[in-house]
Prior knowledge:
Blueprint: H1 2-24, H2 31-46, H3 49-52, H4 54-72, H5 76-102
Helix pairs in contact: 2-4, 2-5, 4-5
Amino acid sequence: MFRSAFRTLAWFAVFICFVALSGCLRTPPPVQEMSDARQALAAAEEAEAERYAPELMARARRLLDAAEANINRRHFLQAKEKAEGSRRVSIEAMKRAQDEAQKPRPDDPPGTPEP
């Protein structure tokens, strides 16, 4: 009888430790990911991605807005995923803008150096 009570108490103590530690292991706010996403969006804007890839820029902004909303709700894992998505889409928009800017324009005379 004493052994079964001790075993139950031991399992209860393990359970309490597990619950206490799980609270400490929560996902921290995605500060770096949010910063990276904002910087990537700013770089895409600087590359005139709004002109060359407006649909990608709109998507990147929506993802960043969703990340901020998730942070406000303390859903840090979802915020991190949205911020990383915004960064990826912003980089894609920037690359597309750079590629499009390098293409010769039909109104440019032949032999005009590219910008």
